[in-house]
Amino acid sequence: MNKKNKFLLFFFTILLFFNILLFLTNIWIFDNFGNVKIQEILFTLLSPTSGTDSSVVYSYILRVLLIAVSFTVLSCFIVLYTRKKSKHFKYIKNISAIFVVVSLFLSCLYTNSRYDIYGYISQKSQTTSIYNKSKKTKKKVKKEEYQGDSTIVYQNPKEINISGSDTNNLIYIYLESIENTFLDTAHGGVKAINCMPELTELALNNTSFSNNELLGGAIPFTGTTWTIASMTSQFTGLPLKVEVANDMDQQNRFMPGAKTIGDILNENGYIQELMIGSQKEFAGTDKLFLQHGFDKICDINSLKQEYSFKSNELNQWGLDDYKLFELAKNEITQLAQTGKFNFTMATIDCHMPKGFLCKYCPNTYENRYENIYACQSKLINSFIDWCKSQSWYENTTIVLVGDHPTMAQQYVNDVPSDYQRTTYNCFINSKVTTDQIKNRQFTHMDMYPTTLAAMGFNIEGNKLALGTNLFSELPTIIEKYGQDYINEEVQKSSEYLDKKIYISLIKNGSQDEIHLFFILQLFLYLHTCFGNSFYIHQK
Questions:
Q1: Residues 321 and 347 sit within 8 Å (Cβ to Cβ)
Q2: Distance separating the N- and C-terminal Cα atoms of the chain
Q3: pLDDT tens per residue across span 283-304
Q4: Strand order in the sheet with 425-428
Q5: Beta strands per DSSP E along 437-508
Q6: Residue 445 burial by CB count (10 A; 0-12/13-18/19+): exposed, middle or buried?
Q7: Taking Cα atoms as reference points, which of 23, 228, 234, 202 lies closest to residue 110?
Q8: Which of 53, 204, 259, 367 is most deeply packed, by most CB within 10 A?
Q9: pLDDT tier at 136 (50, 70, 90 boundaries)?
Q10: Strands 271-276 and 467-468
């Protein structure tokens, strides 16, 4: 074989490998995460990996990487064997080359269609004005009647008067993958049987905001649909930009210019603690909370130093939720003795790809995930019952929020395509009430001012960042301007965010970001060259 043929064989082998790799990766992502967006994929690639469930990595290696390598090697042997044995090798070679090139091109088009890479890059090249101050005309209204200006999209929390003399303590629980889809149809879900009866009763007997007439919740929104993004959006009133991921490693700062719930409560003398069963370093969780007013984080590593655990109390991510709730009672009891407190925690048992069964999970349902959901429902309800028996309960607001719709795709394949999946929410012991809880269009960003209002804080204008106080009469930004418009705008570049919130993140982007951006730009260039006439759509 001459040098030219060796080069061509090597070149098409590489093309074949990437073709197979891309095809299998698309299948693997859908099977494990569902219809995720390019932002979620980029954030996962760029963020610190400390504490990641190793089973996910092994799954990719076994189901994608090894198969792609094996098939490519096998194809090379077949080509070499055919070259020696077949008289029609030249014809076969040409057909194979055309097949590899065409299939790779189609795979790229399919990948773009599925993750909207073209749209992502296009929007990144545009700028938005939603963070700019609008010229306001002051209306002559009584102070107690002022609800706020609905024409303001972004409201800088640092410029708003937030006050309250008799505010509640806060217990805030991020519920991993708890969504309303798994309720029965009578309560707004899609199931014949309700696997979360306790959570249903809590929502019905307290305040729960809904996007429909039944039990609904927050609508999945760009920059809020994976755990750290959901935490960030509820904490800051802003969606999470993927460029933050690299800064966690390089500069050790997480949205340094943002004013968060943690910052506000810190200014008001609250002692604040986060408890999670996984590693605090994962996706920069420690930086988000410790750099914004929190005094302490209890994670799997610190808890192991203080307590001893049995093997059946641990899972691939860390500590089982039932054990975490047991320890939470100890931590809250100590916190309550210090004065006003904010105890925030996050569950993990419903995490993709299969969730984690604990010794208390029932075997009531054929669907494994529904059994885990049922266990979570009982566990949370039991914890709330314990809270009710404590002396501090009457002065404590408890907020339960699903962090994002589940990414365990195998358990939602039966969900109708026209069903709007939403996350669970419930406000217990809110100091304010409202009749406007049904047919609301809102996102996790609205939890920021809504939580403070539920605690008894008065928020001038009822807006913080991109969030709106749902207890007020003011429409949310997606109610006012439409979800599609706001969704497009938050994906665009913003000089204000770069300079005031993220500060030096974009300007000092790392080499990894530059390389990744170059790859995306190359993909866009190839896509543009070939045109958009052939486009594959996926529901």
A1: yes
A2: 47
A3: 889 999 999 999 999 999 999 9
A4: 296-298, 271-276, 341-346, 169-175, 396-402, 425-428
A5: 458-459, 463-464, 467-468
A6: buried
A7: 23
A8: 259
A9: low
A10: unpaired
